[in-house]
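PT: before anyone asks, these are the final sequences, not the draft ones from last week. 992 residues across everything. Please model them as a single complex and drop the result in this thread when it's through.
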Amino acid sequence: MEKRAVFHSVWLPLALVTPQLIITFVFFVWPASQALYQSVLLEDAFGLKSEFVWFDNFTHLFRNRDYLDSFSRTAVFSGLVAGLAMGLALLLAVMADRVIKGATGYKTMLIWPYAVAPAVAGALWVFMFNPRIGIVAYMLQSFGYDWNHQIRGEDAFALITVAAVWKQISYNFVFFLAGLQAIPKSLIEAAAIDGAGPTKRFWTIIFPLLSPTTFFLLVVNIVYAFFDTFGIVHATTNGGPAKATRSREFRGPVRDLDGHCGRAHRRPVPLYRAQGVVLMVERRPFATFIAHMVLILGIFVVAFPIWVTFVASTHHAKDIMTAPIPLWPGTQLFNNYRGAGGVPMWRMMTNSLVMALVIALGKIFVSFLAAFAIVYFRFPFRMAVFWIIFMTLMLPIEVRIVPTFKVVADLGLLNSYAGLTIPLIASATATFLFRQFFLTVPDELAEAARIDGAGPLKFMKDILLPLSRTNLAALFVIMFTFGWNQYLWPLLMTTDRQYLTVVMGIQRMINVADTDPQWPLVMAAVILAMLPPVAVVVLMQRWFIKGLVDTEK
Amino acid sequence: MLRRFWHAVAGVSAAVFLTAPAAAQTEIQWWHAMGGELGQKVDAIAAGFNATQKDYKIVPVFKGSYTETMTGAIAAFRAKQQPHIVQVFEVGTATLMAAKGAVYPVFQLMKDQGLPFDPKNYLPSVTGYYSDSAGNMLSFPFNSSTPVMYYNKTQFKKAGLDPEAPPKTWPELEAMAKKLQASGVKCGFTTAWPSWVHIENLSALHNVPIGTKSNGFDGLDTVLQINSPLHVKHITAMGEWQKSKIFDYGGRQSASAPKFYTQECAMYMNSSAAQAGVRANAKDFEFGVAMLPYYPDVKGAPQNSIIGGATLWVLQGHPKETYKGVGQFFNYLSQPEVQAKWHQETGYLPVTLSSYELSKTQGYYTKNPGTDVSIKQMTLNPPTSNSKGLRFGNFVQIRDVIEEELEGVWSGKKSAKEALDTSVSRGNELLRRFEAANK
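LR: through. Structure below.
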């Protein structure tokens, strides 16, 4: 797919892609090549002695039976997570699409889990499923099932599946809802008049029309289950018991520098053109009642962990260590929130906010320019540039963190906001998404602008930018949440307390050697840390959903 | 909007730069893994040292869990950004010891600075763990602990047992657990850190090797020996007990703590440093502290237990004069008052004999019964080559392997023999990897 109408300049497009290229080279290509080189060396930890061993490291890996076993386990896990997360989300979306009253409320409640940091989500589930004090384990035990994921492999597998599905459901929900709202009501009306019942209408009209969204989500969900669940597995079961939950990626070193790569191409290429015709909506009180019930149940399941977190944050530590955990807020609310964190909470919140904002805006800015250059210009090495940027998507992220640290250190950017944010700004995915979007913008617009004498920059600013508004909002939400939830990178590269972020602060409270964490304080901090991303998601959700549906005005 | 935002960013960064203190003192970075309240105690120690002199400033930095701290320090070393002092847990010892050129051995540093440093002032089983074969201490013991057994006195009373006579041996423990269960207690005992308590310390207490070459002290070409008859006997027994809930598994690390806190299990083995947590969470019962049980039919048992915890390593690559500050700081840390305070507040072992004596004269142990059980257990006998500690490369991963295999036993999927044999073969593979990388 190529644009017909293009602007003519050589230097301008090169200037536009330069920021993206520089960041890509410095923080991706170079560190990744270092990492690749190290994979053929046998080295001691400090890098004092190294020996070139060709592919010994790889043969060693593939001779290892456990490593191969974990492959098949990952496949099962991915299938399960993708299937469940999508099926449930579709059900909820269909129901939300039906109801009119309270729809915004439902949507808002269902979108929350997306804002929870993966590492925190893991801790939350461990807490709820603890065989002794966990509320869910307690419920299961009262039904006669002796839950114990610490011994029984199947239970542990179920636990990580539930946790991973929970984290992903709200995301799928947003996409399905967007897809559903884009289906012309006239088609459904027509089918209804022809006498097709709701089930038949769903399977013969809605589901086929939804298939691009479904396919897209399938890919994203499988990628998510493969690569993005490390945090959950690590925090919940640590691969145990007896390897039952150790999936493939868990074998790698700690990863997460740019862990959103599976997540960010979630915005599909615009799928439908909504026909703004609002037709008569069916009136079927019973069906509507069922829809409300399903949604309320859905919210109960999705929001329950967050409720438990909140409740836990209002009690004394001792009360939480006793089964069953109380389900109603206690009296310690203000004490716990005041005591959350040794470093002032506002300082950590400011740092997280600066980090999240700079990363989100920086990514959008850099990617927007690069995508504009690639789509609207013909310049030397255009495709090469595109592929270099695109390649960064494929590079294994986990191996890059140590070499990237070295680069940042050599640039003197340790302990600075620049060092915290710039290495995370380069994003192939955002560039890729903007490119896909620009390709769908009618060529007539650019032609008309050119005829009117508008230069490329004016076209970009006055026409393309406003058109992309909804896409920008959607990307902003994704990138803000990504930036806010960073843990390993800020931990590795800051030594100055001035730069402590909220997620780091929470880890600091959980990581107590030899004693028990102060769970109420941890939970209070978790709730506080959740507020800004949730606020962004909720405030942006109207735009967000629109940004995923349709771009034509 | 955007412009206003950048102004805000500039404002924040300006504020940060302006508030940075003038660097009149030499800063010494101390990376550690002590989160929560321990982190505040670490800050207090640093502040205490900083107040005693003007030339150096110790800056403690929390760098995540033990593993994250170690990984972070290694990454920093490769980028020449290493801290002066880094806290490394005991199982990382072999990795740092092998990194000659990266590490500034503590005995050497103290000698170079002309500061007094006599290993004889330290608990022998602590120094043994962190010394080279010539007896030189390579790192500074900071927080050491050893596993002990906590037991519920209230439940003991209810079961008609003497709350002041906890079981000394495994057969006694089994009998008492049955009595406890008969009185309505759900499970006899649970444990934290399965490998550390039931493999590593079991070996040391019975004077049985964990691996060849003096548990790895005498060479990298060591192999594991944790499938000996004693190990198989103990793990088989635990597997059987799991079925009758005399033992109930509760997860790795300290995940099993709630089982003891909620009085589901009457006995609980964990680090001596967990005592503060036990005290805070033992809501409706009295608890006591006892030594780990042993098998009376094994000759020489109980020998002595070995430690866990972490030490402070000094990294190379900084200007010479800064190491003077490091030496002074270690000197400060060794003072009986500082050590005794740290020991009493945290439950970690007093690593110097003088701080142990000081705690005694302060009456700490009479006021807090049970707090000296760990020290007594550590010093039962002079350590032998089987009980002075262990030194295996890649031991972080090996411990994971052992605990994975043990979980197979608890769930009844594997026999103890199978699980331990597999632990040995998988562990040996990791040992060979380490040997190859550190020739």
